[in-house]
Amino acid sequence: MADNNVSSTPPAENQNPNPNSNDTIDPNNSNETETSIDAIAQKVQDSMTLSKRHKFWETQPVGQFKDSGNPSLPEGPIEPPTPLSEVKQEPYNLPGPYEWITCDMDTKEMCSEVYTLLANNYVEDDENMFRFNYSKDFLQWALRPPGHYRSWHIGVRVKTSKKLVAFITGVPARIRARDTVVSMAEINFLCVHKKLRSKRLAPVMIKEVTRRVHLENIWQAAYTAGVVLPTPISTCQYWHRSLNPKKLIDVGFSRLGARMTMSRTIKLYKLPDSPITPGFRKMELHDVPAVTRLLRGYLKQFVVAPDFDEDDVEHWLLPKEDVVDSFLVESCETHDITDFCSFYTLPSTVIGNQNYSTLKAAYSYYNVSTKTPLLQLMNDALIVAKKKGYDVFNALDVMENEVFLKELKFGPGDGQLQYYLYNYRLNQTLRPSELGLVLL
Ligand SMILES: CC(C)(COP(=O)(O)OP(=O)(O)OC[C@H]1O[C@@H](n2cnc3c(N)ncnc32)[C@H](O)[C@@H]1OP(=O)(O)O)[C@@H](O)C(=O)NCCC(=O)NCCS
C-alpha cells in the first residue's frame, strides 16, 4: 500500500505544525516531580500495553519492540529456513463459510473482481474522504513482474455466493540490505471486506501468504503499512505537490492557506508548459540497458534497495499508459543517458462529493540525477504530470527526495508510512534518506 493519509497541508500552512511536540519539564514548576513520575508511569504502562498489543505479530519472526536497540542481536535472518518438507502442505483453516482461491490475474474476470473488492474496501484516509482506486491495468502490472507466482495472489470467497471478500498478494523481488542481496516477497494489497473486519482474518491471510512464499523456498519479505507494527525499519512521510489546487481545495484534500486567495494559490502552483531540460524525453524499450546501469549505480548508496536487473527495469519502469511514466535525459552531444525520473499512477476515489468522483495522483517512483540537478529534473516531472492531467504529485521523503520537496512546494501529509522486513533484522532504524525502496 502506498499512502493512507492522503490529505495535505499547503506550504503556506506548514510553518509549525506542532509547536508543543517538544515539551520539556519546567524546572520552576512545583509539580515537576509529580509530572515526571506520572510521565515515567505512563511510559511503563505504554510499553507494557505496546508489548501486549500485538497478539499476532508477537508470534512472528519480526523485530520485537522489546529488542529495539539491542546491539547484541545479529543483523540478518531472524529464523533459519526450514526444510521444504517441513513447510505445512495444506492451507490454513478459514472459518466455515469461506474458502481460499488462487486468483488468476491473467483473466479480465478475476481482475475485475479484485478491482471491485479493493475499490470499495481498500485504504482510506483517517477522515474517510478518499479511498485508493488502483486501476485494473495497474493491478495486473503490480502483480505480474518477472518470475511472479500465481499461488501468491490469494483471495477468500464466501462459499455459497462466491463473493470475493479478502485478498493478499506477494511478488518476488531481490532486495539488498547493506551488502547482502536477499530473495524476498513484497507483500501488498492486504484487504478484508468492511463487513468482515476485526475478526482476526488478517493474521490468517498473512500466515497463508507466508506459507506459500516458504513453499517457493523464500524466507524474507518486505512490506509497508500506515499502522505501527513490530517493528518498522524506517518511518517515512508523504509530501504532496498541488498541480490542480482549485480541485484539491474543492474536494477537501487541501485547504486554502492563511491570507491566501484562490487566485494567489493557483499562481503559486503554476508550472511552465513543457520541460526545460534539453534532451528530456520519454523512456523507450531500447533505453532499458542504459537505465538499468544508471539505476544500479545510483541505488548502491542506500542501505536497503532493490537489486534491479534489465528484466525488472523493463517491467517496472518502461512507460505503461496510466500506470507508470518514465522520462530520461539524453545528452545532446554524447547521447549518454544521464538522468532519469518516474512516477506511477494511483487515483483515489473522492467519497461523497457532488462535483468530483476521483483524484488523479502521481507517485514519485525512482529518480536518478547525475548531470541535471535533481531539483530541475523533478520540476520537469511535475511539468509533465501537470500536462497529463494529474491533480497532485506525491513523494515520500526516501532517497534524496528531501533535496527538492520544500523547494518545489510540496507540503507534508499528515500520516506516516512504515517500512517493514519479515524475518530479517537490521540493528538500526534507518533514516528515510537511507532507504532506496518504493513499494506500490
Ligand atoms: C488491514 C486489514 C486487512 C486488517 O483487518 P482487520 O479486520 O482490521 O483486522 P483483524 O482482526 O483481521 O487482524 C488484526 C491483526 O492484523 C494486524 N494488522 C492490521 N493491519 C495490518 C497491516 N496493514 N499489515 C499487517 N498487519 C496488520 C493487526 O496489527 C492485528 O494483529 P496484532 O494483534 O498482532 O496487532 C483491514 O483493516 C483492511 O482491509 N483495511 C483497509 C485496507 C488496508 O488498510 N490494508 C492494509 C494496507 S497496508
UniProtKB/TrEMBL annotation:
Residues 1-90 are annotated as: Disordered. It comes from the Eukaryota. Residues 77-236 form the Glycylpeptide N-tetradecanoyltransferase N-terminal domain. Its EC number is 2.3.1.97. Residues 1-36 have a biased composition (Polar residues). GO terms for cellular component: cytoplasm. GO terms for molecular function: glycylpeptide N-tetradecanoyltransferase activity. Gene3D superfamilies: 3.40.630.170. Belongs to the NMT family. Adds a myristoyl group to the N-terminal glycine residue of certain cellular proteins. This is Glycylpeptide N-tetradecanoyltransferase. It comes from Deinandra increscens subsp. villosa.
